[in-house]
Amino acid sequence: MAWPLLGAFLCGHLLNFVCLSGLAVQVTVPTEPLSMPMGKTAELSCSYSTSVGDNFALEWSFVQPGKTISASVPILYFTNGHLYPTGSKADRASLLHNPPTGGLATLKLTDLRPSDTGTYLCNVNNPPDFYTNGLGLINLTVLVAPSHPLCSQSGQTSVGGSAALRCSSSEGAPKPVYNWVHLGSSPTPPPGSMVQDEVSGQLILTNLSLTSSGTYRCVASNQMGSASCELNLSVTDSSEGRVAGTLIGVLLGVLLLSVAAFCLIRFQKERKKEPKETYGGSDLRLDSNTQKR
After folding, report:
1. Which residues of the chain, if any, have pLDDT below 50?
2. φ, ψ of residue 242 in degrees (nearest 5)
3. Which of 232, 42, 29 is nearest to 122 (CA)?
4. pLDDT for 37
5. CA-derived radius of gyration, the chain
6. Helix (H, G, I), strand (E, B) or coil at 222
7. Which of 41, 75, 103, 117 is the most exposed place for a label (fewest CB within 10 A)?
8. Rounded distance, CA 60 to CA 169, Å?
9. Is 97 helix (H, G, I), strand (E, B) or coil?
10. In angstroms, how far is the first alpha carbon of the chain from the final one?
11. What pLDDT does 271 receive?
12. Which distant-in-sequence residues (6+ apart) come within 8 Å of 115 by Cβ?
């Protein structure tokens, strides 16, 4: 019989503590994340149950994606019967019901921007009421259409080589998906020679042929819209380059031989035109008679 009596004794003291300390503060927020297009107005619903008195205080704060609650930044306060917006969102943040003394503390945020994406904290404090769940968290995503993507390429763009085409948008929420298409009429590429990743925006082209040349378009899209970019891929045939090099070499050789033959023929003609030396017989006879005398 001792245990039931002890339990009743403890429960009685606990109830007395609750009654002396006040009611429990209970905050309720939606369990589903909220998504709203950029430029629109978001209403972040928050309700509470407590006995509103002189010590009632409400605070809305914001946490950037990837950071902890301890890094939260205040948006507005309500205390001593007055509302105090603060921070970078002060001119766009307000309460849907002001003063929030009827159990409703919904935050109204106008002209939504991509930087508004994150977690919002609704915190109700009302001493001497004790806490059971005085904090509510709401995740907000601001929907943004993809920005104009940037197209680029890398790799060896010759017959038989491989090339990587890349496409990326700096903005877009939710994250855009990417789709590459080869414009114009071209034969269907062999299986496995064209592989694209819709998440990263990369298109891998292998075993390139001359028909792989042309214009490629990348389309970035999400539920808010789409944007595209294009690039030209030029595939060259290295064997044609070797043939052209050989032909140029042959032509240069023929030219050099022609120049050499021309110079030789000219030289021979010049030699034939030169006059030969002659000796007069009378002069020789005159010299011999002179010697006899």
Report:
1. 1-21, 241, 243-244, 278-293
2. -65, -40
3. 29
4. 97
5. 46
6. strand
7. 41
8. 32
9. coil
10. 185
11. 64
12. none
Centre a 10 Å sphere on the Cβ of residue 121 and count the other Cβ atoms it contains: 22
| Residue 130: alpha-carbon gap to chain centroid | 47
Predicted local confidence at residue 146, as pLDDT: 97
What CA–CA distance (Å, rounded) separates 79 from 52? 11
| Closest C-alpha among 34, 93, 88, 30 to residue 58 | 93
Rounded Cα–Cα distance for residues 124 and 59 (Å): 7
DSSP 13-61: HHHHHHHHH-PEEEEE--SS-EEEETTS-EEE--EEES---TT-EEEEE
79: amino acid identity, one letter: T
- Cα 227 to Cα 248: distance, rounded to the nearest angstrom: 47
How far apart, in whole angstroms, are the C-alpha atoms of residue 82 and residue 57? 10
State the CB neighbour count (10 A cutoff) for residue 26: 17
Count of H helices and E strands in the chain? 3, 19
What does the pLDDT read at residue 50? 82
Give the CB-side neighbour count of residue 44, counting CA atoms within 13 A: 30
* Token duo for residue 111: 């002209």
| pLDDT at residue number 55 | 83
The residues near 174 (Cβ < 8 Å, ≥ 6 apart) are 141, 143, 222, 223
Which among 113, 16, 99, 108 has a CA at the least distance from the CA of 64?
113
Nearest to 109 by CA among 50, 117, 291, 101: 117
State the amino acid at position 274 in one-letter form. E
* Cβ pair 106, 46 in contact under 8 A: yes
